[in-house]
UniProtKB/TrEMBL annotation:
Domain T-SNARE coiled-coil homology: 1-34, 120-182
GO biological process assignments: synaptic vesicle fusion to presynaptic active zone membrane; synaptic vesicle priming
Alphabetized SUPFAM superfamilies for the sequence: SNARE fusion complex
Name of this protein: Synaptosomal-associated protein 29
Function: SNAREs, soluble N-ethylmaleimide-sensitive factor-attachment protein receptors, are essential proteins for fusion of cellular membranes. SNAREs localized on opposing membranes assemble to form a trans-SNARE complex, an extended, parallel four alpha-helical bundle that drives membrane fusion. SNAP29 is a SNARE involved in autophagy through the direct control of autophagosome membrane fusion with the lysososome membrane. Also plays a role in ciliogenesis by regulating membrane fusions.
Glycosyltransferase recorded as keyword: no
Molecular function terms from GO: SNAP receptor activity; syntaxin binding
The species this protein was found in: Sclerurus mexicanus
Location of the region described as Disordered in the Swiss-Prot/TrEMBL record: 47-100
Length: 182
């Protein structure tokens, strides 16, 4: 969730840098108009840049990658089931050692289990625990893969943002220099 929040902040930052760049271009046109009559005529006949529509609440909503969204939704769905089955989170039941015949009959009997009922019950319990571990590891794997994809996308966004900011910085210095010359 924190990674998604950071992605939203990066998206807003990138939009603000784009707006600053557009404002800087507009100010350079005004400087050219002030500097000479010829610059004013060129700016008058130049095509106007398309105005961007005002965004809702300042910026469009940021969407995390689908892999991360799916992993987060799956994780939230399994969270209650996980808490109920986790040995440290569930209430400890001291009757685990007393296996009733109904428990054994209701459980799936396989040929691989030993004939001894207590040993069979322990094997079944181990299998159940292994299944729970497998489910948890699968959930963690999906979250990790989603996080990896989101981080790669945000890394690309940061690279793009860095290039834009560097270009904007150079343009601001040039515009400042032009204003000082006036």
């Amino acid at each position: 969730q924190e990674l998604v929040r950071q992605g939203e902040a990066l998206k807003r930052t990138e939009q603000m840098v784009d707006k600053m760049d557009q404002d800087l271009k507009t100010s350079q046109k005004h400087i050219n108009s002030i500097k000479s009559v010829w610059g004013g005529l060129v700016n008058y006949f130049k095509a106007k840049p398309p105005e961007s529509k005002p965004e809702q609440n300042g910026a469009p909503e940021y969407y995390a990658n689908s892999r991360l969204k799916e992993a987060m939704m799956s994780s939230k769905e399994q969270e209650t089931k996980y808490q109920e089955s986790h040995p440290n989170l569930r209430k400890l039941d001291n009757s685990d050692n007393d296996f009733s015949k109904a428990d054994l009959v209701s459980s799936v009997e396989r040929d691989s289990y030993p004939k001894n009922q207590q040993l069979r019950a322990y094997h079944q319990k181990i299998d159940t625990n292994l299944d729970e571990m497998s489910s948890g590891l699968s959930r963690l794997k999906n979250l990790a893969l989603g996080l990896q994809t989101e981080i790669e996308e945000q890394d690309d966004m940061l690279d793009r943002l860095t290039r834009k900011v560097e270009t904007l910085d150079i343009n601001i210095k040039n515009t400042d220099k032009r204003v000082r010359q006036l």
